[in-house]
Amino acid sequence: DAGVIQSPRHEVTEMGQEVTLRCKPISGHDYLFWYRQTMMRGLELLIYFNNNVPIDDSGMPEDRFSAKMPNASFSTLKIQPSEPRDSAVYFCASSLRGGSMNTEAFFGQGTRLTVV
Amino acid sequence: AQKVTQAQTEISVVEKEDVTLDCVYETRDTTYYLFWYKQPPSGELVFLIRRNSFDEQNEISGRYSWNFQKSTSSFNFTITASQVVDSAVYFCALSGGGSNYKLTFGKGTLLTVNP
């Protein structure tokens, strides 16, 4: 498998614009996570899905952020409107809960977002 | 609620020294999972190890070893004979058991191995 694929790798946008980050999880994985990484706050869990259903979105900073998972092979994280403080690296990860065991999460390469 | 604490923000060692990275966790789950990840300067997050709460055996993989102690809620990571290529940020992470798979990371420890 190619691993978790995120696009774009880099995004530079102007304040107020809509930004959409994309993620393709590893085939067969039933969990998908969106994280944000900044120097100040470290790795923050924004939202995670199980079988395409959002389970916990308590980490989503505000209503400007939304995430969807329309099918098992695709998820998006949208920021509208974007602000400079949204600048960060956004990671997508997926994992498989095999039976009763939680396995490790595999991460994509991340999307470096810069809002100017 | 679950929490992971990595008290060491930065560690600097000289090549060939042994180094231990500390991780303390909090959870109310009786079944849980602990992980270590490495983030080299290139930025990707690389999985290193998973440990289940019901398995307290320590593990060794080459120069890496992990010490899991439920009594002190710790899951420490030791690198023996460190090398420059070990320089990275290391994250400890925790997920709950059951269907609540919420993967929470510590703040990370920046390890610098100097030649």
If you had to describe this structure to a student in words, what would you say it looks like?
The complex is a heterodimer of chains A (116) and B (115). Chain A is mainly β. Chain A contains no helices and 13 strands. In chain A, the strands form three sheets. In chain A, strands 2, 4, 5, 6, 9, 12 and 13 form a seven-stranded mixed β-sheet that branches. In chain A, strands 1-3-8-7 form a four-stranded antiparallel β-sheet, with no helix packed on it. Chain A has a two-stranded antiparallel ribbon with strand order 10-11. In chain A, strand 10 and strand 11 (101-102) form a beta hairpin. The termini of chain A are far apart. The mean pLDDT of chain A is 93. By secondary structure, chain B is mainly beta. Helices cover 0% and strands 53% of the residues of chain B. Chain B has no helices and twelve strands. In chain B, the strands form three sheets. In chain B, strands 2, 5, 6, 10, 11 and 12 form a six-stranded mixed β-sheet that branches. In chain B, strands 3-9-8-7 form a four-stranded antiparallel β-sheet, with no helix packed on it. Chain B is globular and about 45 Å long. The A-B interface holds A 31, 33, 35, 42-43, 45, 48, 50, 55-56, 89, 91, 93, 95, 97, 101-107, 109-110 and B 33, 35, 37, 43-45, 47, 50, 52, 91, 95-97, 99-108.
List strands and helices in order, with pairings.
The complex is a heterodimer of chains A (116) and B (115).
Chain A: E1 5-7, E2 10-13, E3 19-24, E4 31-38, E5 42-50, E6 53-56, E7 65-71, E8 74-79, E9 88-95, E10 97-98, E11 101-102, E12 106-107, E13 111-115
Parallel strand pairs in A: 2-13
Antiparallel strand pairs in A: 1-3, 3-8, 4-5, 4-9, 5-6, 7-8, 9-12, 9-13, 10-11
Chain B: E1 3-5, E2 10-14, E3 19-21, E4 24-26, E5 32-39, E6 46-52, E7 59-61, E8 64-69, E9 74-79, E10 88-96, E11 104-105, E12 109-114
Low-confidence stretches of chain B: none
Shape of chain A: globular
Q: How much helicity do the residues of chain A have?
A: under 10%
Described by strand count, sense and barrel closure, the largest sheet of chain B is:
6 strands, mixed
pLDDT averaged residue by residue of chain A: 93
Rounded to the nearest angstrom, the distance between the terminal CA atoms of chain B is 41 Å
Query: What Rg of chain B, in angstroms, do the CA atoms define?
Result: 14 Å
Mean of residue pLDDT values of chain B? 92
From the helix content, strand content and strand pairing of chain B, which structural class follows? mainly beta
- Strand coverage percent of chain B: over 45%
Number of helices of chain B: 0
